[in-house]
Amino acid sequence: MLRFEQVSKSYPGGFVALDRVSFELQKGEMAFLTGHSGAGKSTMLKLISLIERPSAGRVVINGIDLSGIRSGQIPYVRRDIGMIFQDHRLLMNHTVFDNVALPLVIEGFTGRDMARRVHAALDQVGLLDKARCLPATLSGGEAQRVGIARAVVNKPPLLLADEPTGNLDPDLSKDIMRVFEAFNQAGVSVLVASHDLGLIARMRYRTMTLKSGKMINDGLLHSEDAE
Amino acid sequence: MSILFNGRASGASDSAPGLVQRFLMGIVGHLRQAVSSLGELWRSPVWTFVTIAVLGISMTLPATLHVLVKNLQQVSSSYDQSFEISLFLKNDITETDIATLVTLLQGDKEVAKVRLIDKAAAMAEFKQESGFGEAIKFLDQNPLPDVLLVTPTQSQPAAAEALLNKLQKERFVELAKLDISWLERLAAIMSLVQQVVYTIAALLLCGALLVIGNTIRLLIMDKKAEIEVMKLVGATDSFIQRPFLYTGIWLGVFGGFLAFLVIELMLYWLRGAIANVTQLYQSGFVLNVLTLKEFGLLMAIAVSLGLVGSYLAVRSHIKAIEPS
Asked: Does any CB of chain A come closer than 8 Å to the CB of residue B28?
């Protein structure tokens, strides 16, 4: 499903954000990506969503090498990947409904068809009653769940989350993680970057640890130990 | 269609049943974006107003000059009709020859009217007008030639000159004369004015283009965060730029209409003053206003300026905004 092959990323000035990282995420698998800030978690997600390109190595999704994707095709690739951000990146002067509908509008959906899908997505994150609210009136956890609804509204096969619980207290964080679990159980591949080690340990999923751009631990063994 | 996942239905077009429905959806989408761009303009009224004013004024000046030139041409063309070619005939020709020549000229489609002033009539007129009556009595014979006054059908100086050259070669004609130098000068001045109008218009419209581009650039910068999010969830550049292009079109529509209003008001205001003058000169001059076709052209130019200005801004700035 998602495969990194000896991927390196260095920035002008010599900073190496990723150093020969390899791993594979299976279809329908859920995994965590952890490490201190600056360890390369965000860089990895940016390489998947084509915000950045690798300096060396290959990023392959579903057998397709991303280096072959032209810049004009990037929007279409992103439609296959649901992305969730720490600061949720909602459009503050549009309603919750409009925010969740955005990916559908971009793909040309209109009217009842679009409304049905938006309501389904809001229902999945438990915010159906907030559809007409503006994001400013929502709590942090609610705003993050709107971000998740937007990421899943067009049913992407792959979900990426970058520190989705970074600004939330432990209880809300657990709720958010449960939402990811639910999507994973519906067959979506999920990759969550987080440095909330306590929460991750309790979740018992495969955990990959980055340190200074190197993969120092791929927690497949870890989770087997736990079971 | 999905690039990464073969067979994954993505986008409304994949689930829409027919071509017609897809087409209708496209039209509905465009209409919605056009309307929402109009609403977007209301959100920054000051910049919108300034841009519309700049565009309107930039269009008003050349359009006014155009109306002015048009009216001047109307005035000068009424003078054009008053010129005639004088044909001084040879002294040794008979009356039959003259009659033949008159018939010949009347048959020419470049000639509107021919009038004969024969020797005797010319002499009588000269005696009466010049005051040399007594002196002329001492002449043995009438020294004046027969004269034909020819009015050309076409009133342009160039056409008249061509006719003059043709008539000059006639067998019985001693000398053909046409005083068109002042007409030529007038025509030259008119075309100079026209050139100046076009140059000023081009410069003003370039300025308007830059102002529109700048306004759109400000709108884009204002929505930088929103554009980043749209790119992250898979919006193409053309999808993101479409509302800004509509904004440019709206600016053009309003700017063009403002120019039209200003010109009409100005002409309405001038009409009273001109009526006074024409009454004093007892002339039948009627002030020309913008025709429907010219109004259409004005709007078309304004809208294309809006579109081109916003396109230039959108092309460079939207590509430059990338999520990080």
From this structure: yes
